[in-house]
Design brief:
Elements lengths: L4 E5 L1 E5 L3 E5 L2 H10 L3 E5 L8 H7 L2 E4 L24 H17 L3 E4 L1 H9 L3 E3 L19 H4 L4 E5 L4 H6 L3 E4 L6 E4 L4 E7 L4 E6 L6 E4 L11 H18 L11
Parallel strand pairs: 1-4, 1-5, 5-6, 6-13
Antiparallel strand pairs: 2-3, 7-10, 8-9, 8-11, 11-12, 12-13
Length: 258
């Protein structure tokens, strides 16, 4: 059987402040290829180039990646401020509709960092622009200095709901993860189940209640060292299994908390 195809939602960049590109981190492609066992396909996230329906037909699953631009607050009814940072409205237009379509169809997706936030917004939730400013919260942002290894080092625990989706998937209730994000979930969207939190209460793992297929998101960057980190490996292996099932025509049942 041919390997399933995973669409990796790309980000828009300027090279030398002039040349426009759509790209995705090599970590994402490596995780999809080596751990999920799928063919990674970078998706130019722009509705002028691709349509959600075309992507649904072309791919067996989707990886919603991290990215520097944030979901525009107008997508969840808030006014933009300086704290919200930069935006990518073209990616918003593709990713949010894609999440809703995948949930409806049962087509598998795995959402990471910005992707995690996109899932919440797509389902009607809101985001806080700077969670480190909330009482009792730690600074989850990427360290400004250091090597890649130092920036992606495991920095805090995430504790899952006992007996929940992530607990069963990981085989343990508490895991250690990296953290490289400024924004976070403020209010959970309809059917969004917060299944794991950091020590300071920040939502870190979610799934869509009643989704007919694999519909999971994590706030940390699980693509880093996906083949060597047991937490990331379990996540990408399960995602790979879901994409193979979709490619074969199988349609798994709904995700349930217990």
């Amino acid at each position: 059987m041919a390997r399933p195809i995973v669409g990796i939602i790309g980000n828009a960049h300027l090279i030398n402040d002039q040349y426009e590109v759509h790209g995705g981190g090599a970590m994402n492609s490596c995780a999809v290829s080596t751990v999920s066992g799928a063919i990674p396909l970078i998706v130019p996230a722009d509705p002028n180039i691709v349509a959600v329906n075309d992507l649904l037909e072309a791919c067996d699953g989707f990886l919603l990646t991290g990215g520097r631009p944030n979901v525009h607050p107008e997508e969840y009814g808030h006014e933009p401020t300086e704290a919200h940072g930069t935006f990518d409205r073209a990616r918003d237009a593709i990713a949010l509709g894609l999440v809703r379509a995948c949930v409806e169809r049962g087509q598998p997706f795995l959402a990471v960092c910005r992707g995690f936030q996109e899932v919440n917004v797509a389902m009607g939730g809101t985001l806080h622009p700077e969670i480190r400013e909330l009482p009792g919260r730690m600074n989850h942002r990427m360290p400004p200095d250091g090597t890649i290894e130092e920036k992606f080092e495991l920095r805090h625990d995430v504790t899952f709901t006992e007996g929940g989706v992530f607990h069963r998937l990981m085989g343990k209730q508490t895991v250690r993860t990296n953290t490289l994000h400024g924004q976070g979930i403020e209010e959970a969207g309809a059917r969004i189940v917060i299944d794991g939190r950091a020590d300071d209460g920040t939502p870190e793992a979610i799934y869509v209640e009643g989704a007919p297929g694999f519909a999971l998101g994590v706030q940390w960057h699980a693509e880093y060292n996906a083949s060597g980190d047991p937490v990331s490996k379990a996540l990408f292996e399960a995602f790979g299994d879901a994409t193979r099932a979709w490619a074969s025509g199988a349609r798994p049942g709904c995700l349930k908390s217990a």
